[in-house]
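Run log, item B.
One chain of 156 residues. Sequence copied directly from the ordering sheet:
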Amino acid sequence: MSTSFMRSSDVDKKWILIDAEGMILGRMAVVIANILRGKNKPYFTPNADCGDNVIVINADKVAFTGKKLNNKMFYWHTGYPGGIKSRSMKQLMEEPRSDRMVMNAVRRMMSKGPLSRKILSKLKVYKGAEHPHVAQNPEVLDVAKLNSKNSRRIRS
């Protein structure tokens, strides 16, 4: 008996909708990366695009654990002498393109290469609750119910 491999053209792709409000960023990014890659399907093939399309709404309302919002810093260099720049996660979340935080978290959890870059084009991230993909009839996935640690608990 030989192992069967799926082709990208043979895979039935669905649309998944994830509401990011109150979700822990890293835990949500792991779930999204696995869905995009197709690792949640029984016919996963490492060299083919087997994953589904993912829509993330309310990306500006993600939660962080601990003191990451204020203490975690992102650094880059301009290329000029003394050109080191830094911003905290809080500053990045206050910018107009705060949805990039979710996009970068998912991108950094995937392998590097041409297939992953193609797979990332199936990820659609929106700051608000509206999205233009209503015609695709996306299935709603509640990531908070997968594990109790996935969402931020309000302590009284």
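Observations after the first pass:
- The mean pLDDT is 92.
- The first helix runs from residue 25 to 37.
Flagged for discussion on Thursday.
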